[in-house]
Fold:
Amino acid sequence: MQRWSWLSAMIVACVLALAGRVHAVDPAPADPDDDLSTAPLTIDFVSRLAERSHPILRRDTARIDSATGDAVQAGLYPNPRFDTNNPQVFTGAQSLFNGGIMQEFVVKGKLRLDRAAATKVVHQNQFAYVQDRVGLLTAVRQQFYTTLAAQRRVEILHELQQITQRSLNVGRKLEQAGEGSGIDVLLLGIDAERVEANLVNAEALLQGERKQLSSIVGIPNLVDRDVEGSLYAKTPDFDEEVMQKFVTNDSALIEIARLDVERNRILLKRAEVEPYPNPTLGPAFQYGTTPGSEQYWLTVTFPIPTSDRNQGKIHAARANVRDSTENLNTVQLELLRHVADALSRYRALRAQELKYRKQIIPDALRTMRKAQSGYAEGVFDFSRFLQAQRTVVEANMDNIGILESVWTTAAELAGLLQLNQFP
Structure:
């Protein structure tokens, strides 16, 4: 049994190395103008690439330009028009020719209200750009850490594959020398096969995560190598009171909803002044072929608001004000719910990760050391030592999953706060 001691020590050292690689330093972010085939794929780098490359932001910019054009058009005064006022008369020497200019005069500030309402749409589109940018960055950040976690799983399984293969090789040699058990070799072989299958699966999943990150950034096949970062870096702290205040007052979604209320109030005023008629007036001149037949006159026309006083649209506009006001309240409550949900999950995950880092993984390592020592001395059987080894590896793999959730939830919270810098 003493011949197993060096193998056990080697396994312990390798697993300790797996557990101890927890403080990698993030490399300095690269400039988006760098060569994409060689630039380090940090979270800052891919985030800036997404802002520059993703079509959703260019689409939003086009929508802002379109709304700006609509706002300009809404405030333009009506063009004057040529109007003969009377029919042309062609009777030879008695012919009469008429011509005039008519201008509509807009009253009660209707054009000002039209432009004000259209300007609110411009501002809504600007905040929609902010919201889409935040959503894009959140998606990039979450997928980055999902990819980083998948990458770390592959690294752990590669190292575990080497451990199990070495254990299997030594077990076979000991069996051939008559000092080992065939059952032990069989168990070691099963472990090696399981690790091999898990590694194949993890590598396939990693390729899928890389493709998803490339698509979110907006550059297909961008992520064709390892991303650079650390799951073990210090996670950000979030103040619940600050978050609640921000999401209910300053969030882009709140601004969009608030602008919708303001716009509907303007449209209500616009509907209320619509019954006031816009007069159309202008001079006209008549020229006749008969001397002394010239005439001048001024034409004035306007609709008379009798049965139609725009009462239906006024009623609808008032309802729209109530609708948008309640929508604003609904958005505030939904954002508060989102903050409560994400923050509670984040705190629970951080507590769970701390438990793994401070207690579960160290306890698993101590247990494996004792099992290794007891097995080397013939006190414990092989199955107990093998189980202790598996427990350490499984604890580290579980911790990777927890860290992935910690960072993706942190990115979600950063999105709610519309943070430009993360982590």
In short: The domain at 4-416 is CATH 1.20.1600.10 (Outer membrane efflux proteins (OEP)). The beta strands are 81-82, 96-104, 280-288, 295-301. Confidence is low (pLDDT under 50) at residues 1-32. The two ends are 50 Å apart (CA to CA).
